[in-house]
Amino acid sequence: MTSNHDLFVRACARLPGGVNSPVRAFRAVGGEPFFTRRADGPYLWDVEGNRYIDYVGSWGPMIVGHNHPHVREAVERAVKDGLSFGTPCEAEVTMAETIARLVPSVEMVRMVNSGTEATMSAIRLARGATGRSRIVKFEGCYHGHGDAFLVKAGSGALTLGTPTSPGVPAALADLTLTLPYNDFEAATRLLDEVGGDVAGLIVEPVAGNMNCIPPREGYLQHLRALCTQHGALLIFDEVMTGFRVALGGAQAHYGVTPDLTTFGKIIGGGMPVGAYGGRRDLMQQIAPAGPIYQAGTLSGNPVAMAAGLAMLELVQAPGFHDELARRTRLLCDGLQAWADGAGVPFTTTRVGAMFGLFFTAEKIETYAQATACDVPMFNRFFNAMLERGVFLAPSAFEAGFLSSAHTEDVIAATLDAAREAFAEAKA
Ligand code: PLP
Predict the structure, then answer these.
(1) Alpha-carbon 422 to chain mean position
(2) How many domains does the chain have?
(3) Domain end position, chosen among 276, 294, 315
(4) Strand 176-180's sheet: what is its strand order?
(5) Which of 62, 112, 116, 261 has most ligand 1 atoms within 8 Å of its beta carbon, as the pocket-test mutant?
(6) For residues 236 and 263, what is the distance between their CA atoms, to the nearest angstrom?
(7) Catalytic amino acids?
(8) Tell me: the pLDDT tens digits for 222-240?
(9) Pocket test for ligand 1, best of 58, 123, 143, 398 (most atoms within 8 A of CB)
(10) Which of 60, 90, 271, 407 could form a disulfide with 265 if both were Cys (CB 3.0 to 4.6 A apart)?
(11) In the prediction, which pLDDT does 170 show?
(12) 389, 393, 394, 418: which is closest to 53 by C-alpha?
């Protein structure tokens, strides 16, 4: 039998760090990653046959659990007709219509292949449409690995302690301004100063890459008003929150309408998909309707569209998001109770089926607070949970995700493990 360790040794010889995406490598939490052989429902099984309750969910897409038959069968049907056409196909049109129906601010959409492509393309559109060069982002928010965003970026970059990446030209980074998330005053000041040069302000409407930090009450409305006042486009990066925190995403949950929205993860049903969309007058400026160039050999791929459409059918079931939110609350409340019982300073955040675990007694609302939490304690907790068959995101700065396959029994099993893990982490 192949072991996780043997595979990691082989992987490290040929893949940088042994992985194809940094946070998978477990560097933040210590140890080596396990290699998944198969996944089903709320579980992953590694190559050694160990089973894990999975709260990573492929980093967000698997909101109906792994290997859901409705999604898998849609993919199987699509595959029989061919893998890629290079011409338009009906599934792309249905996908665009579905997104526009579920997220009304998205009047037109362009499909791409990842969240990174979506955000890179959205800021090109913002720059092209406004004729301005600067963009504004928030410290601790992650928008993929496009050069313009690797300026004090969070998530993987934060975990690895490289707030800016070599290879990003300083001249380009100069055009990205960074604000503290959830700070009303700082946003007002910055836009009062340079608002006339800002093409777009991009934000995760619920921050999910500095752990999980919901917006303060009125914060997204404040950003909306500032952008309108200064003629900058408001871009919601809903790659993580889209179809997760509510059927209509964070913009529906908080009642704020952005000019442009980016998507990924859930809309691909587990296949490599992203999308950006928004106001018709803006989207009509994208080639070939307009002059702003953006293209993709595999964009709108028929198999990926089939997976995404099947996933979007499932999340439209009546009460789907309410039930997920209820179970997420059960999980968070249960974890809080065991942490309190063990005398561990601990707090949780959650919006819909997205949650954050923080080793601190403070209510968390800012990036500075998130980074001040007890990271070594989180790492001990992570490893204690993993030993007990529960896989949390392998970094103190990532959000957790629940799926509809996480039944009350699965949550109860998680809490059993957590009871011991808190005690172990404290020791
Ligand atoms: N935007 C957000 C909010 C994300 O969480 C991510 C990835 O985690 C991205 C963009 C980048 O998406 P991808 O990894 O598909 O390129």
Answers:
(1) 26
(2) 2
(3) 315
(4) 108-112, 274-278, 260-263, 233-237, 198-203, 134-139, 176-180
(5) 116
(6) 9
(7) 142, 237, 265
(8) 999 999 999 999 999 999 9
(9) 143
(10) 60
(11) 82
(12) 389
Under 8 Å between Cβ of 206 and 245: yes
Pairing of strands 134-139, 198-203: parallel
Mean pLDDT along residues 378-392: 98
Owning domain of residue 417: 4-67+319-426
What is the number of other CB atoms lying within 10 angstroms of the CB of residue 45? 15
- Looking at the whole model, is its pTM more than 0.90? yes
Instruction: Compute φ and ψ for 357, nearest 5 degrees.
Output: -120, 125
Cα separation, 13 vs 16, in Å, equals: 8
Torsion of CA 132, 138, 142, 145, to 10 degrees: 40
- Ligand 1 centroid to Cα of residue 355, in Å, is 17
User: How big is the chain by its Cα radius of gyration, in Å?
Assistant: 21
- Number of neighbours of residue 131 by Cβ within 10 angstroms: 7
Cα of 137 vs centre of ligand 1, distance in Å, is 14
Pair of tokens at residue 330: 């059960």
Among 148, 145, 149, smallest CA distance to 23 is for 145
| 278 Rama class: left (phi>0) / alpha (psi -120 to 50) / beta | left
Q: Which of 285, 315, 345 is the last residue of a domain?
A: 315
The model's confidence at residue 198, banded by pLDDT at 50, 70 and 90, is: very high
Question: Which residues approach ligand 1 with their CB closer than 6 A?
Answer: 59, 114-116, 119, 142-144, 204, 208-209, 237, 239-240, 264, 274
Same domain, 267 and 409: no
Provide the residue type at 13 as one letter.
Answer: A
Q: Supply the residue whose CA is at minimum distance from atom 1 of ligand 1.
A: 143
Q: What would you measure as the largest C-alpha separation in the chain, in angstroms?
A: 63
Residue 108 host element (H or E): strand 108-112
- With 70 as the cut, is the pLDDT of residue 125 above it? yes
**Percentage of residues in the chain having pLDDT higher than 90:** 94
Q: Are residues 167 and 263 in the same domain?
A: yes
* Predicted pLDDT of residue 294: 98
Q: What is the mean pLDDT of residues 144-171?
A: 68
Question: Omega into 288 within 30° of 0, i.e. cis?
Answer: yes
**Long-range Cβ contacts of 170-173 (<8 Å, 24+ apart):** 172/147, 172/148, 173/147, 173/148
Same structural domain for residues 101 and 165?
yes
Ligand 1 atom, smallest distance to 155 CA: 8
